[in-house]
């Protein structure tokens, strides 16, 4: 085929093949990572879109490779050579692709192979070979090598959003050169099921990596988790080369003591702690420390200090939300007889979130990110319930549904303004607002919905067993 010669544009078009889980988290992840590497996310698709395909305009292949070294939401990236609604349109589109951008991958002394990827339809081997034959209009000159090809080309076909009712013909067809795969393997290799030290609320590995990516964690950063638990969020940050530290109010968790969370194990064994988790993955050198401390009482002198704060605060579902009490605070509440001074007080959810934002505003470096989970009662959710702070800009807000009436939202914020004297009162104002106070009743709403549903479905005992059989059922806590 004789191809017209056209000069290549400065920005090249890339096609990203996205994974089909955690759909809401995918575009913000890619956007965050591109901003880390100086690129822009120009995708016009709706962020809520379930389509596994998204387009990027990038200045270099190197940027595409950097992106794929980090993403757990994307499977692969391709240099897009052509796309259309039919093979004929694909051919016409390829004719418009600049020859000089193709020629070095089509040399007679090179090897290549063509693979087919279909979304929502399975093709037989024969059908695949037929499709490869149709691609004869691509001016391949090299030799086919199925085992070890220098250049891998892909024909990708989208059969629409209905897996059980796929279209006869594809909705859209893409052709491009494979560049790199993403980091989906990390989800398995860092799985909590195989982790040395786990607890009832250890963060799922995939979501933990997504949080680190939304937080733009990078090598040599200092990352902090104020509610560190078993350190499930420190692990991906250390994997990306950041130094990690945290605080935790529970003595047993910090010291790896007490009852084990794992099935078939009664007590935690020796050396079950966060440092050992990092050691398990060869990341011990990134461990700074974990302190037995109350996140509501700041212990840090230097400010700003952290490049990112990545955390999963307690929601009070199967663990209490607690903070240490001072004698003054306790006297104020007048709930206790004078003779009784409790060590810990209830820590209201609205206070947890306003303290967290205020802390992030004060202790994050400018440009640093706060990523955290906010539990919400879905029937009452509006964007107004998302806590705000004058120093922090909301970057993304992605929902993970937990039940018909509850979900949690991964909130990403960026410090955009220096913390000044008056900003320290922002949280007082906010935590008094009615919208934020609504967070305090999450626990009651969670259980009232649960009780009604259990009564309806008549399966009270098994309600939460489905989420993970490696954790003792009575201990299991996703939120
Ligand atoms: C949802 S869990 C965090 C789980 C953690 N991301 C992991 O992967 O294991 C919340 C943690 O916050 C701790 N916590 C509760 N109140 C606290 C406080 N005031 N200060 C510090 N930690 C607190 C709890 O003991 C619990 O371990």
From TrEMBL:
| Record Pfam families | Tmrp11_N, UPF0020
* Record key words, sorted: Cytoplasm, Methyltransferase, RNA-binding, S-adenosyl-L-methionine, Transferase, tRNA processing, tRNA-binding
Q: Which residues form the tRNA (guanine(10)-N(2))-methyltransferase TRMT11 N-terminal domain?
A: 12-184
Q: Where is this region: Disordered?
A: 456-479
Q: Which residues fall in a coiled-coil region? A: none
Cellular location(s): Cytoplasm
Record Gene3D superfamilies: Vaccinia Virus protein VP39
What EC identifiers does the entry list?
2.1.1.214
The entry's cellular-component GO terms read: cytoplasm; tRNA methyltransferase complex
Question: Where does the UniProt annotation place the signal sequence?
Answer: none
- What coarse category fits the chief subcellular location reported for this protein? cytoplasm
Q: Any transmembrane segments, and where?
A: none
An individual GO BP term: methylation
MF GO annotations: tRNA (guanine(10)-N2)-methyltransferase activity; tRNA binding
Q: Quote the catalytic activity from the record.
A: guanosine(10) in tRNA + S-adenosyl-L-methionine = N(2)-methylguanosine(10) in tRNA + S-adenosyl-L-homocysteine + H(+)
The UniProt function text for this chain reads: Catalytic subunit of the TRMT11-TRM112 methyltransferase complex, that specifically mediates the S-adenosyl-L-methionine-dependent N(2)-methylation of guanosine nucleotide at position 10 (m2G10) in tRNAs. This is one of the major tRNA (guanine-N(2))-methyltransferases.
PANTHER family xref list? RNA METHYLASE-RELATED, TRNA (GUANINE(10)-N2)-METHYLTRANSFERASE HOMOLOG
Q: Which family does it belong to?
A: Belongs to the class I-like SAM-binding methyltransferase superfamily. TRM11 methyltransferase family.
Q: How does it assemble?
A: Part of the heterodimeric TRMT11-TRM112 methyltransferase complex; this complex forms an active tRNA methyltransferase, where TRMT112 acts as an activator of the catalytic subunit TRMT11.
Name it: tRNA (guanine(10)-N(2))-methyltransferase TRMT11
Native source species:
Leptobrachium leishanense (Leishan spiny toad)
State the encoding gene: TRMT11
């Amino acid at each position: 085929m004789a191809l017209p010669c056209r000069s290549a544009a400065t920005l090249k078009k890339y096609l990203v093949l996205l994974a089909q889980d955690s759909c809401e988290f995918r575009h913000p992840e890619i956007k965050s990572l591109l901003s880390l590497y100086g690129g822009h996310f120009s995708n016009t698709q709706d962020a809520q879109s379930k389509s596994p395909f998204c387009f990027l305009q990038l200045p270099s292949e190197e940027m595409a490779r950097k992106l794929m070294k980090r993403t757990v939401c994307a499977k692969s990236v391709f240099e897009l050579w052509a796309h259309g609604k039919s093979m004929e349109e694909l051919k016409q589109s390829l004719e418009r692709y600049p020859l000089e951008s193709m020629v070095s991958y089509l040399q007679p002394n090179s090897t290549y192979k063509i693979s087919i990827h279909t979304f929502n339809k399975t093709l037989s081997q024969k059908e695949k070979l037929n499709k490869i034959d149709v691609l004869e209009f691509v001016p391949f000159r090299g030799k086919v090598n199925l085992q070890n090809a220098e250049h891998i080309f892909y024909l990708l076909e989208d059969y629409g959003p209905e897996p059980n009712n796929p279209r006869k013909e594809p909705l859209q067809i893409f052709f491009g050169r494979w560049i790199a795969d993403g980091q989906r393997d990390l989800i398995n290799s860092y799985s909590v099921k195989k982790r040395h030290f786990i607890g009832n609320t250890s963060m799922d590995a995939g979501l933990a990596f997504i949080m680190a990516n939304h937080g733009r964690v990078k090598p040599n950063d200092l990352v902090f988790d104020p509610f560190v638990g078993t350190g499930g969020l420190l692990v991906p940050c250390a994997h990306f080369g950041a130094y990690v530290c945290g605080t935790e109010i529970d003595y047993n968790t910090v010291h790896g003591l007490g009852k084990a969370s794992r099935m078939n194990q009664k007590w935690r064994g020796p050396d079950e702690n966060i440092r050992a988790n990092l050691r398990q993955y060869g990341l011990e050198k990134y461990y700074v420390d974990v302190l037995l401390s109350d996140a509501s009482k700041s212990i840090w002198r230097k400010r700003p200090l952290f490049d990112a704060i990545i955390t999963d605060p307690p929601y009070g579902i199967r663990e209490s939300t607690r903070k240490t009490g001072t004698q003054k605070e306790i006297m104020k509440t007048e709930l206790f007889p004078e003779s009784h001074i409790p060590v810990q007080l209830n820590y209201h959810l609205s206070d947890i979130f306003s303290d967290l934002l205020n802390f992030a505003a004060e202790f994050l470096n400018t440009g640093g990110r706060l990523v955290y989970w906010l539990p919400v009662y879905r029937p009452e959710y509006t964007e107004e319930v998302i806590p705000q702070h004058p120093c922090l800009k909301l970057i993304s807000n992605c929902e993970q549904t937990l039940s018909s009436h509850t979900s949690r939202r991964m909130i990403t914020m960026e410090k955009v303004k220096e913390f000044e004297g008056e900003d320290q009162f922002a949280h007082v104002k906010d935590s008094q607002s009615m919208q934020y106070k609504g967070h305090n009743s999450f626990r009651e709403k969670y259980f009232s919905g649960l009780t009604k549903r259990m009564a309806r479905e008549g399966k009270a005992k098994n309600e939460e067993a489905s989420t993970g059989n490696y954790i003792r059922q009575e201990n299991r806590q996703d939120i």
